[in-house]
Amino acid sequence: MTLSKIIQLMRPHQYIKNIFILLPLFFALKITDTQLLIDSIIAFVAFSLTASAVYILNDYHDIDEDRKHPTKRDRPLASGDISKQNGIWIMVVLLGIGFLIMSLLSLKATTILAIYLVMNILYTFWLKHIAILDVTIIAIGFVLRLFIGSFVTNIELSMWIVIMTFLLALFMALAKRRDDMLIYLDTGKKMRKVIDGYNLQFLDTAMSIMASVVIVAYIIYTSSADVLARVNSHYLYLTSIFVTIGIMRYLQITFVLQDSGSPTKIVLRDRFMQFTIIGWIVSFGWILY
User: Fold this and answer.
1) Longest C-alpha distance within the chain, in Å?
2) Which GO cellular component terms are attached (predicted)?
């Protein structure tokens, strides 16, 4: 067991998803508040450590299935680079540190973290085998990240931010299931039992619906009277260009390139997607700040 294998087991590349913890600060125009930013970053670290523990639990439970997967078989537990016993010890330590750090910031945020943990335990052992509910749980996880950021900074969340986050996460989760379906159709191997509850037509239709609703919801948000009054600008709707392009690119990656197995890796590797996200952040930040 080496340090590099422990880091691989923790899946730090997945931490990019935890940036949602910082969104309440960004949308509230308080990203320049040093103390709130520090608190949000500390919450980011605490949540990331807890999320790593959840990933280890999932790898431990799915070790037999992962050994059949073309890429997951190289994970430390599935490959045998880290023993099951050591994996459990690492998980316990990460959980302890994560909850300790979060408890020092906010009891409400710690409660949300506990809900996230319980939800993922249920997901690992039961809920992920129920079609539709499995992707819904993933989407709720992103919403919980928002609430942690909200409680740590005492910033009230906009209902539109919650709605759009849920829909966007659901869209990406469906794309991930579609990738599992393609592997099954190509190899005859079921990477997940829940695949029995899906087919390509359903996943394609559901993704198209979610993509459309996300774009419409964002346009409504950026053109709503209360948001325009709060940001003191009538140009926020222009940022919807980047949102639309980003969604279209993700659809292209899913339907044309057929490579939507890891949303995190798409964001980290796809230059088109990266420039689109940067364009959105810069334009949104310029208008807000």
Assistant:
1) 57
2) plasma membrane
Same domain, 191 and 272: yes
When divided into structural domains, the chain yields a total of: 2
One domain, residues 3 and 133: yes
Residue type, 229: A
- pLDDT over 90 (residue 187): no
Task: Judge if pTM exceeds 0.85.
Answer: yes
pLDDT band (50, 70, 90) for residue 158: confident
Provide the 8-state DSSP code for 157. Answer: P
Domain that holds residue 71: 1-157
* Domain end call among 136, 157, 178: 157
Q: Are 240 and 287 in contact (CB under 8 A)?
A: no
What backbone torsions phi and psi does residue 119 show, to the nearest 5 degrees?
A: -60, -40
Q: How confident is the model at residue 233 (pLDDT cuts 50, 70, 90)?
A: confident
Q: For tokens 């409504």, name the residue.
A: 220
Say if residue 149 is in the same domain as residue 169.
Answer: no
- Helices 107-125 & 84-105 angle (0-180, nearest 10): 150
Same domain, residue pair 216 and 124: no
- Spatial contact of 53 and 35, defined as CB atoms under 8 Å apart: no
Residue 103 CB-density burial (10 A; 0-12 exposed, 13-18 middle, 19+ buried): middle
Q: How far is CA 52 from the centre of its chain?
A: 13
Nearest in space to 175 (alpha carbons), one of 269, 249, 72, 65: 249
Nearest to 56, CA basis, from 93, 21, 17, 104: 93
Q: Is the pLDDT of residue 66 over 80?
A: no
Task: Check whether residue 135 and residue 220 sit in a common domain.
Answer: no
CATH number of the domain that residue 53 is part of: 1.10.357.140
Mean pLDDT throughout 247-253? 95
